[in-house]
Amino acid sequence: MRNIPIVTKNLLIVNVVAFLVCLLMGKNGPDGYVLNDLLGLHFFLASDFHIYQLFTYMFMHGGFEHIIFNMFALWMFGCVVERVWGPKKFLFYYIACGVGAGLFQEAAQAVQFYVVASSQLPGLSFSDLTVVAHNSSAVLNQWTTVGASGAIYAILLAFGMIYPNERIFIFPLPIPIKAKYFVIGYAAIELFSALATTGDGVAHIAHLGGMVFGFFMIRYWRKQVDGGYGGSHTADAFDKLKNMFGGKRNTGKRNFTYTRNDSYTSQYEQDAECTTNEKVVSQEEIDRILDKIRKSGYDSLTKEEKQSLFDQSNK
What residue stretches are annotated with the Peptidase S54 rhomboid domain (predicted)? Predict the structure, then answer.
């Protein structure tokens, strides 16, 4: 647990504790927990719906298999993504994609409700749905979505976009596959399941919604970081990664002085915390590794270089 980044570790703890509390509070029927009825995401036209459920539902789970799979994926991929982005950006991404997944699920349920209602009431318009929903509150309150899967699928997407060519083993495949193909395959499976299966109790649209929100968020961030790249003084992505992995920001300015032998020498005004030779050498090594990633990709790193990168991020 000491090697798990702070946000990933706390998300694991909160989800597990919430599930234990859910078990202690017991069930209100053969298939539902009392706490899930309170904090799970209800259909927005149902009487039990509350706006805070768009946030709380992602910390609720429906059973042991559900939470084990989600927490394993969060640990496996969340650690890597958080080390690259940092805790604040990672937490914002996780929560935003979880809420986005919930909004997708709400939209899918609205379409489903309209299709079912219009098949029984020909000529029904969307404006009439509120009246029908009020008369069907007992049924609609059973439409409850729980689980962190939407946010987890967004993290899988982030890993695939950060390290598209990183090879990973997926059981039961006998050979490793590239992360980008892994993500594409998962998205295709969810899309097929959403279209081909009904009533399986899995929120496939929420999974896809988390990935869609994550995709556009990452694309937006990349445009912000890369804006003006190559022709301005804006730092590129790897300059920011150097600051993050270095652990300390160099707040001083770089001053160039002209000497008699027509050469330039640079003088660095460094923080008090970066005065030892050991820290300077360590920072130089991290800079070299990050430059290598920029030029040749993450796959070009040796095993020792990858380990150095992650070791430095934990300091």
Answer: 50-220
